[in-house]
Amino acid sequence: MAAADARLVHLDANFLVELAAARSAPVRQVELWLQDECRIQVSAVAWSEFLCGPLLDFELDYACSFVTLVDAFTEDYAMLAAELFNLTGRRARTLVDCMIAAHAIRCEAELATRNAHDFRPFKRFGLRLV
């Protein structure tokens, strides 16, 4: 499978936290994706959340070893995030989730999160959860 055609998985910040802490389930899952030649990425928004920590240097290094790209958040993603925000109730605490969901939708990526409940409202707009 060509790299551009490979399955694309975006990691949410909470998935990154568990991955960086070397928790077994997320580590096993990412290792399986890598064996299947999936591309593992994270949006700059989720990366920013993750970096807010607390985070030890070795945890950051470990998380970086799995991520192939931290992808920029563009105007196109911002427009979809605002639309998702308005369509799902305009709840202030959901704006970052709207941004992460919009990014995954536009990139045609699956989103790996440890809190699927927060992202379920976006499935009807094209979000695919792992």
Task: Report what the structure shows.
By secondary structure, this protein is α/β, with parallel strands linked by helices. It has helices at 13-20, 24-35, 44-51, 57-64, 75-87, 95-107, 116-119; strands at 8-11, 39-43, 69-71, 110-112, 128-129. Strands 3-2-1-4-5 form a 5-stranded parallel sheet.
Task: Please summarize what this structure is.
By secondary structure, the chain is an alpha/beta fold.
Rg over CA atoms, rounded to whole Å, is 14 Å
CATH classification class: Alpha Beta
Q: Which structural class do the helices and strands define?
A: alpha/beta
The rounded distance between the terminal residues' Cα atoms is: 20 Å
DSSP helix fraction = 40-55%
CATH superfamily: 5'-nuclease
Number-wise, the strands total: 5
Main-sheet strand order equals 3-2-1-4-5
Which residue ranges are poorly predicted, with pLDDT under 50 across at least 5 consecutive positions?
none
CATH topology name: Rossmann fold
Listing every helix as H and every strand as E from the N terminus to the C terminus, the arrangement reads EHHEHHEHHEHE
How would you describe the shape?
globular
Q: How many domain regions?
A: 1
- β-strand amount: 5-15%
- Biggest sheet: strands, sense, closure? 5 strands, parallel
The whole-number mean of residue pLDDT values reads 93
User: Helix count?
Assistant: 7
The CATH architecture name reads 3-Layer(aba) Sandwich
